[in-house]
Amino acid sequence: MVQAEKPLSGKRILITRPREQSKEISNEIRLFGGIPILLPLIKIRTLFDENEFNKFLAYLSESEIDYVVFMSVNGVKSLLSNARKFGKVSVLVKALRKSLIVAVGERTATYLKRVNIHVDIIPKKFSSEGVVRELLSRNVWNKIIYIPKTNSSNNYIKKQLEKSGAIIHEYYVYETVIPRSLPLLQDVVKQLSKHEIWAITFMSPSTVRSFLGLAGRLLNRRNLISSLNQIVIAAIGSTTKNELEGKGILVDVVPAKHTSHELVLGLVKYAIYSKKPVKSD
Questions:
Q1: d(C-alpha 38, C-alpha 185), whole Å
Q2: Helix axes 221-228, 205-215, angle to 10 degrees
Q3: Could you tell me the pTM of the whole model?
Q4: What DSSP element (H or E) covers 257?
Q5: Alpha-carbon distance 63 to 61, whole Å?
Q6: What are phi and psi of 145, to 5 degrees?
Q7: pLDDT per residue as tens digits for the range 222-271
Q8: If residue 239 lies in a helix (H) or strand (E), which one and from where to where?
Q9: Torsion 125-130-131-136 (CA) sign
Q10: Nearest alpha carbon to residue 108 among 97, 129, 123
Q11: Residue 118 CB coordination number (10 Å)
């Protein structure tokens, strides 16, 4: 019996998220026959501020924070890194029990539970918009909400919830750093120019900015955008999609659920049903 060809068979797919976060999506791409190419365009660096951490912990301990919103696993890890550095992990975990904990999606919720932090709310839509919609349904007037987050993300949640009377504190616990150089980038740009890469996955606006900034040093910006518009572009979330489209890049795949699993399924469906003229091995 002839074995059916897998939908991503021989297709090179560029993964732009940090290397340590790429295992799951790489394995799923291989499962469908694809060839994952790792090009980590950002690094996650924890920000340590003892005064800010102690202030947050004091508010938590005194039951003065109504909601703590975690927008990523990175936010959880970085907050815990602060707690470890300042010797207050058990105090933090205990204090968090006094607030309602919001996880932006299943992956963040799973990690929170793994480190013994309860989760009260997971929005139906795993995104900033989903978080806003969920919290607005609960009446946030005069509620104090803390958001441990990166210093490079937008303030959409803050703006939207403040309109309804919430008191928002954005607590910057990590930053995304663009590497100065990437050894594999030159080879990736060559493959891109020859249409040997079938798809690129962008997980955040910062990965878009990093790619265009670094690749733009090796290829004329107009030619770079033209090359990107001849392959499949996949994005997690509307903010990433908007960042790409604002740069003139067409987006082909945006999963309704903001997970790497759904992104791969979106690529599979695109490979089956789309006739976009891109090469594969």
A1: 10
A2: 130
A3: 0.83
A4: none
A5: 5
A6: -125, 125
A7: 999 999 999 999 999 888 999 999 999 999 999 988 888 999 999 999 99
A8: helix 238-246
A9: negative
A10: 123
A11: 13
What is the side-by-side strand order in the sheet with 144-150? 43-46, 167-177, 144-150, 67-70, 100-103
The total number of residues shown for the chain amounts to: 281
Judge contact between 42 and 11, C-beta under 8 A: no
Contacts of residue 142, defined as CB under 8 A and 6 or more positions apart, other chains included, come to 165, 166, 167
Residue 185 amino acid letter:
L
Q: Where are the alpha helices (H) located in 127-237, listed in sequence order?
A: 128-136, 156-162, 185-193, 205-215, 221-228
Whether 279 has a pLDDT exceeding 80, the answer reads no
Note whether 254 and 245 are within 8 A (CB): no
- Residue 4 phi/psi, 5° resolution? -65, 140
3-state secondary structure of 13: strand
Contact 13, 267 (CB under 8 A): yes
Tokens of 32: 């469908």
Which residues, in sequence order, are bridge partners of residue 254? none
Torsion of the alpha carbons at 18, 212, 11 and 264, rounded to the nearest 10? 50
In the three-class reduction of DSSP (H, G, I as helix; E, B as strand; rest coil), residue 108 is classed as helix
CB 26, CB 38: distance < 8 Å? yes
Query: Residue 76 above 90 pLDDT?
Result: yes
